[in-house]
Specification:
eight-stranded mixed beta sheet, alpha/beta, 12 strands, two-stranded antiparallel sheet, binds magnesium ion
Length: 242
Amino acid sequence: MSRTAAIVPAAGRGERLGPGAPKALRTVGGVPMLVHAVRALATARGVDLVVVAAPPDGVEQVRTLLASHALDEPAVGRSAAAVVVAGGDTRQASVAAALASLPDDVDVVLVHDAARPLAPESLVCSVVAAVRAGSPAVVPGVSVTDTVKRVGATGVVVETLDRTVLRSVQTPQGFARSVLAAAHAAADPATSATDDAGLVEASGVTVSVIAGDEEAFKVTRPIDLVLAEAVLARRRAAGVVG
Ligand code: CTP
Ligand code: MG
Protein backbone atom coordinates (compact mmCIF):
# COMPACT_ATOMS: atom_id res chain seq x y z
CA MET A 1 0.00 0.00 0.00
CA SER A 2 1.20 3.53 -0.67
CA ARG A 3 -0.08 6.55 1.15
CA THR A 4 0.31 10.32 0.91
CA ALA A 5 1.19 12.37 3.98
CA ALA A 6 1.07 16.16 4.33
CA ILE A 7 3.53 17.85 6.67
CA VAL A 8 2.52 21.23 8.10
CA PRO A 9 5.41 23.25 9.58
CA ALA A 10 3.71 25.39 12.23
CA ALA A 11 6.46 25.98 14.78
CA GLY A 12 7.41 29.52 13.78
CA ARG A 13 6.92 32.57 15.96
CA GLY A 14 5.65 34.91 13.28
CA GLU A 15 8.02 37.74 14.13
CA ARG A 16 7.22 39.71 10.99
CA LEU A 17 3.53 39.65 11.89
CA GLY A 18 4.27 41.56 15.09
CA PRO A 19 3.37 40.91 18.73
CA GLY A 20 0.69 38.34 19.56
CA ALA A 21 0.14 34.60 19.65
CA PRO A 22 2.38 32.30 17.54
CA LYS A 23 1.39 32.92 13.91
CA ALA A 24 -0.19 29.51 13.24
CA LEU A 25 -2.62 30.13 16.11
CA ARG A 26 -3.67 33.61 14.98
CA THR A 27 -7.15 33.58 13.52
CA VAL A 28 -8.65 34.37 10.14
CA GLY A 29 -12.46 34.58 10.22
CA GLY A 30 -12.34 33.41 13.84
CA VAL A 31 -10.56 30.15 13.00
CA PRO A 32 -6.82 29.60 13.66
CA MET A 33 -4.70 29.66 10.50
CA LEU A 34 -3.38 26.21 11.34
CA VAL A 35 -6.92 24.78 11.37
CA HIS A 36 -7.65 26.30 7.95
CA ALA A 37 -4.44 24.80 6.55
CA VAL A 38 -5.01 21.35 8.07
CA ARG A 39 -8.62 21.29 6.83
CA ALA A 40 -7.58 21.99 3.24
CA LEU A 41 -5.16 19.07 3.41
CA ALA A 42 -7.27 16.65 5.45
CA THR A 43 -10.29 17.00 3.20
CA ALA A 44 -8.34 16.72 -0.07
CA ARG A 45 -8.80 13.43 -1.85
CA GLY A 46 -5.47 11.71 -2.01
CA VAL A 47 -4.12 12.91 1.36
CA ASP A 48 -4.19 10.11 3.95
CA LEU A 49 -2.35 11.60 6.90
CA VAL A 50 -1.50 15.11 8.16
CA VAL A 51 1.49 15.70 10.45
CA VAL A 52 1.77 19.10 12.14
CA ALA A 53 5.13 20.31 13.49
CA ALA A 54 4.21 22.43 16.52
CA PRO A 55 6.41 24.64 18.69
CA PRO A 56 8.24 22.20 21.02
CA ASP A 57 6.60 23.77 24.07
CA GLY A 58 3.18 23.86 22.43
CA VAL A 59 2.57 20.29 21.26
CA GLU A 60 -0.25 19.60 23.73
CA GLN A 61 -1.83 22.98 23.03
CA VAL A 62 -1.89 22.26 19.30
CA ARG A 63 -3.29 18.75 19.89
CA THR A 64 -6.09 20.24 21.97
CA LEU A 65 -6.73 22.91 19.34
CA LEU A 66 -7.06 20.38 16.51
CA ALA A 67 -9.25 18.12 18.65
CA SER A 68 -11.62 21.02 19.29
CA HIS A 69 -12.18 21.85 15.62
CA ALA A 70 -13.86 19.63 13.05
CA LEU A 71 -11.29 18.93 10.37
CA ASP A 72 -13.76 17.73 7.79
CA GLU A 73 -16.34 19.79 6.00
CA PRO A 74 -19.92 18.56 5.71
CA ALA A 75 -19.90 18.91 1.94
CA VAL A 76 -16.81 16.74 1.68
CA GLY A 77 -17.51 14.26 4.44
CA ARG A 78 -14.01 12.93 4.79
CA SER A 79 -10.98 13.84 6.82
CA ALA A 80 -7.53 12.36 7.05
CA ALA A 81 -6.11 11.79 10.53
CA ALA A 82 -3.97 14.61 11.96
CA VAL A 83 -1.08 14.04 14.36
CA VAL A 84 1.20 16.55 16.08
CA VAL A 85 4.97 16.33 16.61
CA ALA A 86 7.47 18.77 18.09
CA GLY A 87 9.05 21.07 15.50
CA GLY A 88 12.51 22.65 15.63
CA ASP A 89 14.34 25.97 15.68
CA THR A 90 14.09 26.48 11.93
CA ARG A 91 11.50 25.59 9.31
CA GLN A 92 13.97 23.09 7.88
CA ALA A 93 14.32 21.40 11.29
CA SER A 94 10.54 21.35 11.77
CA VAL A 95 9.99 19.63 8.42
CA ALA A 96 12.81 17.16 9.14
CA ALA A 97 11.23 16.23 12.49
CA ALA A 98 7.85 15.56 10.89
CA LEU A 99 9.46 13.62 8.04
CA ALA A 100 11.26 11.38 10.51
CA SER A 101 7.93 10.51 12.16
CA LEU A 102 6.16 9.25 9.02
CA PRO A 103 4.99 5.63 8.80
CA ASP A 104 6.84 3.35 6.36
CA ASP A 105 3.97 3.02 3.89
CA VAL A 106 4.00 6.74 3.00
CA ASP A 107 5.58 7.24 -0.42
CA VAL A 108 4.44 10.76 -1.36
CA VAL A 109 4.92 13.75 0.95
CA LEU A 110 3.47 17.24 0.70
CA VAL A 111 4.87 20.11 2.74
CA HIS A 112 2.47 22.99 3.40
CA ASP A 113 3.00 26.12 5.51
CA ALA A 114 0.49 26.71 8.29
CA ALA A 115 0.96 30.34 7.28
CA ARG A 116 -0.93 29.74 3.99
CA PRO A 117 -4.41 29.22 5.45
CA LEU A 118 -6.39 29.78 2.25
CA ALA A 119 -4.59 27.46 -0.18
CA PRO A 120 -7.51 25.80 -1.98
CA GLU A 121 -8.10 22.08 -1.83
CA SER A 122 -7.93 22.01 -5.64
CA LEU A 123 -4.28 23.11 -5.43
CA VAL A 124 -3.54 20.32 -2.95
CA CYS A 125 -5.08 17.81 -5.35
CA SER A 126 -3.12 19.18 -8.33
CA VAL A 127 0.19 18.80 -6.48
CA VAL A 128 -0.60 15.23 -5.38
CA ALA A 129 -1.64 14.33 -8.93
CA ALA A 130 1.56 15.72 -10.44
CA VAL A 131 3.75 13.69 -8.06
CA ARG A 132 1.64 10.55 -8.55
CA ALA A 133 2.03 11.10 -12.32
CA GLY A 134 5.79 10.75 -11.94
CA SER A 135 7.34 14.13 -11.07
CA PRO A 136 9.76 13.68 -8.17
CA ALA A 137 9.33 17.25 -6.95
CA VAL A 138 6.52 19.71 -7.68
CA VAL A 139 6.03 23.33 -6.63
CA PRO A 140 3.13 25.70 -7.36
CA GLY A 141 4.35 29.00 -8.80
CA VAL A 142 2.79 32.32 -9.74
CA SER A 143 4.21 35.08 -11.89
CA VAL A 144 5.95 37.98 -10.18
CA THR A 145 4.13 41.30 -10.39
CA ASP A 146 6.81 43.67 -9.12
CA THR A 147 10.02 44.27 -11.05
CA VAL A 148 12.80 42.60 -9.03
CA LYS A 149 16.28 44.11 -8.72
CA ARG A 150 19.44 42.70 -7.23
CA VAL A 151 20.92 45.26 -4.87
CA GLY A 152 24.50 45.48 -3.58
CA ALA A 153 25.63 46.04 -0.01
CA THR A 154 25.75 49.80 -0.46
CA GLY A 155 22.13 49.95 -1.62
CA VAL A 156 23.08 50.41 -5.27
CA VAL A 157 21.24 48.42 -7.96
CA VAL A 158 23.44 45.70 -9.45
CA GLU A 159 20.96 44.41 -12.02
CA THR A 160 17.31 44.25 -12.97
CA LEU A 161 16.08 40.69 -13.37
CA ASP A 162 13.90 39.54 -16.28
CA ARG A 163 10.52 39.25 -14.61
CA THR A 164 9.08 36.93 -17.26
CA VAL A 165 11.29 34.05 -16.13
CA LEU A 166 10.69 34.56 -12.38
CA ARG A 167 8.08 32.75 -10.27
CA SER A 168 7.03 33.18 -6.66
CA VAL A 169 6.68 29.67 -5.33
CA GLN A 170 4.08 28.57 -2.84
CA THR A 171 3.09 25.53 -0.87
CA PRO A 172 1.91 22.79 -0.81
CA GLN A 173 5.03 21.42 -2.46
CA GLY A 174 5.00 17.71 -3.28
CA PHE A 175 7.75 15.11 -3.38
CA ALA A 176 8.48 11.47 -3.76
CA ARG A 177 9.28 10.64 -0.14
CA SER A 178 12.69 9.18 -0.99
CA VAL A 179 13.69 12.39 -2.80
CA LEU A 180 12.64 14.67 0.07
CA ALA A 181 14.26 12.43 2.69
CA ALA A 182 17.55 12.32 0.76
CA ALA A 183 17.55 16.10 0.32
CA HIS A 184 16.99 16.67 4.05
CA ALA A 185 19.61 14.09 4.96
CA ALA A 186 22.16 15.86 2.74
CA ALA A 187 21.28 19.36 3.97
CA ASP A 188 23.40 21.20 6.48
CA PRO A 189 21.24 21.50 9.61
CA ALA A 190 22.98 24.81 10.32
CA THR A 191 21.56 26.34 7.15
CA SER A 192 17.88 27.01 7.06
CA ALA A 193 16.16 26.52 3.75
CA THR A 194 12.97 28.54 3.40
CA ASP A 195 11.46 25.91 1.13
CA ASP A 196 11.92 22.21 0.59
CA ALA A 197 12.22 22.44 -3.17
CA GLY A 198 15.41 24.45 -2.59
CA LEU A 199 16.95 21.49 -0.79
CA VAL A 200 15.78 19.10 -3.50
CA GLU A 201 17.27 21.35 -6.22
CA ALA A 202 20.57 21.34 -4.34
CA SER A 203 20.49 17.53 -4.36
CA GLY A 204 20.38 17.60 -8.17
CA VAL A 205 16.78 16.40 -8.66
CA THR A 206 14.55 18.17 -11.20
CA VAL A 207 11.84 20.34 -9.65
CA SER A 208 8.73 21.01 -11.75
CA VAL A 209 6.54 24.10 -11.45
CA ILE A 210 2.77 23.84 -11.82
CA ALA A 211 0.25 26.70 -11.81
CA GLY A 212 -0.08 28.14 -8.33
CA ASP A 213 -3.12 29.92 -6.91
CA GLU A 214 -3.24 33.53 -5.79
CA GLU A 215 -5.26 32.50 -2.71
CA ALA A 216 -2.35 30.32 -1.54
CA PHE A 217 -0.43 33.44 -0.50
CA LYS A 218 1.57 33.37 2.74
CA VAL A 219 0.50 35.45 5.72
CA THR A 220 3.76 37.12 6.68
CA ARG A 221 3.10 40.77 7.49
CA PRO A 222 0.07 42.49 9.06
CA ILE A 223 -1.26 43.57 5.64
CA ASP A 224 -1.50 39.88 4.64
CA LEU A 225 -3.97 39.27 7.48
CA VAL A 226 -6.18 42.02 6.11
CA LEU A 227 -6.16 40.32 2.70
CA ALA A 228 -6.81 36.89 4.24
CA GLU A 229 -9.84 38.19 6.14
CA ALA A 230 -11.22 39.72 2.95
CA VAL A 231 -10.67 36.58 0.87
CA LEU A 232 -12.33 34.38 3.50
CA ALA A 233 -15.28 36.77 3.85
CA ARG A 234 -15.75 36.64 0.08
CA ARG A 235 -15.67 32.83 0.15
CA ARG A 236 -18.20 32.65 2.96
CA ALA A 237 -20.48 35.12 1.18
CA ALA A 238 -20.30 32.83 -1.85
CA GLY A 239 -21.36 29.89 0.32
CA VAL A 240 -17.98 28.19 0.38
CA VAL A 241 -17.36 26.72 3.85
CA GLY A 242 -14.20 27.84 5.61
N1 CTP B 1 8.14 27.27 10.77
C1 CTP B 1 8.35 26.13 11.53
N2 CTP B 1 9.40 26.05 12.39
C2 CTP B 1 10.23 27.11 12.54
C3 CTP B 1 10.04 28.28 11.77
C4 CTP B 1 8.99 28.34 10.87
O1 CTP B 1 7.58 25.16 11.42
N3 CTP B 1 11.21 27.02 13.44
C5 CTP B 1 6.95 27.35 9.88
C6 CTP B 1 6.02 28.51 10.24
O2 CTP B 1 5.20 28.15 11.37
C7 CTP B 1 5.27 28.75 8.97
C8 CTP B 1 6.22 28.26 7.88
O3 CTP B 1 7.31 27.58 8.55
O4 CTP B 1 4.05 28.00 8.88
C9 CTP B 1 6.72 29.40 7.02
O5 CTP B 1 7.56 30.25 7.78
P1 CTP B 1 7.36 31.82 8.00
O6 CTP B 1 6.29 32.35 7.15
O7 CTP B 1 8.72 32.43 7.98
O8 CTP B 1 6.75 31.83 9.49
P2 CTP B 1 7.48 32.27 10.83
O9 CTP B 1 8.88 31.75 10.87
O10 CTP B 1 6.54 31.90 11.93
O11 CTP B 1 7.47 33.87 10.67
P3 CTP B 1 8.68 34.91 10.85
O12 CTP B 1 9.76 34.44 9.91
O13 CTP B 1 8.09 36.22 10.49
O14 CTP B 1 9.08 34.81 12.31
MG1 MG C 1 10.31 32.41 9.39
